[in-house]
Amino acid sequence: MMDWDKLRIFYTVAQTKSITRAGEELQLNQSSISRQITALEKQLGTPLFHRRPRGLVLTEQGEVLQTTVSEFFQKLHATESALMEIEEKPKGDLRVTLPVAIGTVWLVPMLKEFLQLYKDIQLILIIEDREVDLSTREADAAIRFYPSKQPDLIQRQIFSLGSGIYASNDYLSKRGTPHKLEDLRDHTLIGYTEDRHPPFQDINWLYKMAARKGVELKPALCINSLYGMLRAVKSGMGIAPLPDYMLDRAKRVSRILDHMEGPVIEGYFVYPSDMKNSKRIRAFYNFLLRKISETRM
Questions:
Q1: At residue 83, does pLDDT exceed 70?
Q2: Averaged over 287-295, what is the pLDDT?
Q3: In angstroms, rounded to a whole number, what is the distance separating the alpha carbons of residues 85 and 5?
Q4: Whole-number Å distance between alpha carbons of 123 and 288
Q5: Domain residues of the chain, as ranges?
Q6: Mean local confidence (pLDDT), 73-94
Q7: Interval 59-73 mean pLDDT
Q8: Phi-psi bin for 163: left (phi > 0), alpha (psi -120 to 50), beta?
Q9: Region 229-254: what's the mean pLDDT?
């Protein structure tokens, strides 16, 4: 029979692809983890990892074991969640993943109220633009700018975001206010880095719209972060297309060329179907709906 501790260590190493990162997560030293993995490989009579200069890669046998162990941990996590939900009040960890821009600019400033309302919930935010896998329990729920195609996930559309063209008042006082698309040729423009995976489609809609109308616009600065674009606009660096919610409470920043509107961005709250009765999920979902109704989104 395989040892529980060895399987737990194997699972963490397989997820992180690094003995160092697995050690940090498990609070074990690297030599202990290496010994446990070697012992498990000896017990099974087969190597589980290829040791490469840039990290660990699962062997074919390792992938088979990872699939089985992952399913076990998913069921264990679901069982733990179900037991916690028996309590009258929402209780336990809640891991939520969402894009950087909406996480840092919109959600985080509101969370003080949530933490006061639900003191038995430990909220863990995973703020990054990559798609975190809910099926393997990297997170319990997600806020995404696109609908999910996975059949085992429940999704609820929770907001629609408009977008426009913004510049700081200081920039406009120095460089003048453009009144038509062609005027933007004489301004410093900011765009999103095209070779990175954006948080939503058509993030550079302004430049694509201009190209369709025969107006060539080229950003002087490209950044792979909406929040970075926001900071650049606020500092008076130039003009950028941005979602309206990011500038809802911004001071000394103006929306220009109001007749030119960008695409509407749909936002979804997504979670695994086996958590449909979770009180923690329901509490966070209801909190989101209330805050969305209170803000301009």
A1: no
A2: 85
A3: 27
A4: 14
A5: 4-81, 87-152+274-294, 163-263
A6: 70
A7: 85
A8: beta
A9: 91
Indicate the fold that domain 163-263 takes in CATH: D-Maltodextrin-Binding Protein; domain 2 (3.40.190)
pLDDT per residue as tens digits for the range 17-63 = 888 888 888 888 888 888 888 988 888 899 999 888 777 888 999 88
Torsion over CA: 87, 93, 96, 100 (sign): positive
pLDDT in tens, 266-281: 999 999 998 888 999 9
Element (H, E) at 236: none
Indicate if 87-152+274-294 has the same CATH topology as 4-81: no
First-residue to last-residue Cα distance in the chain: 54
Residue 174: CB partners within 8 Å, gap ≥ 6? Answer: 236
> Encoding tokens for residue 125?
């935010």
CATH of span 87-152+274-294: 3.40.190.10
Task: Tokens for 43, please give them.
Answer: 């017990």
Contact 102, 268 (CB under 8 A): no
CATH fold group of domain 4-81: Arc Repressor Mutant, subunit A (1.10.10)
Using only C-alpha atoms, the chain has a radius of gyration, in whole angstroms, of 24
Pairing of strands 221-223, 190-192: parallel
Other CB atoms closer than 10 Å to residue 264's CB: what's the count?
10
Structure tokens at 251: 């001071």
Amino acid letter at 292? I
The two most distant CA atoms of the chain are separated, in Å, by 75
pLDDT of residue 84: 59
Q: Strand locations in the chain, DSSP E?
A: 49-52, 55-58, 92-98, 121-127, 141-144, 153-161, 163-168, 190-192, 221-223, 240-243, 253-256, 265-272
Q: What's the CA gap between 257 and 35, in Å, rounded?
A: 63
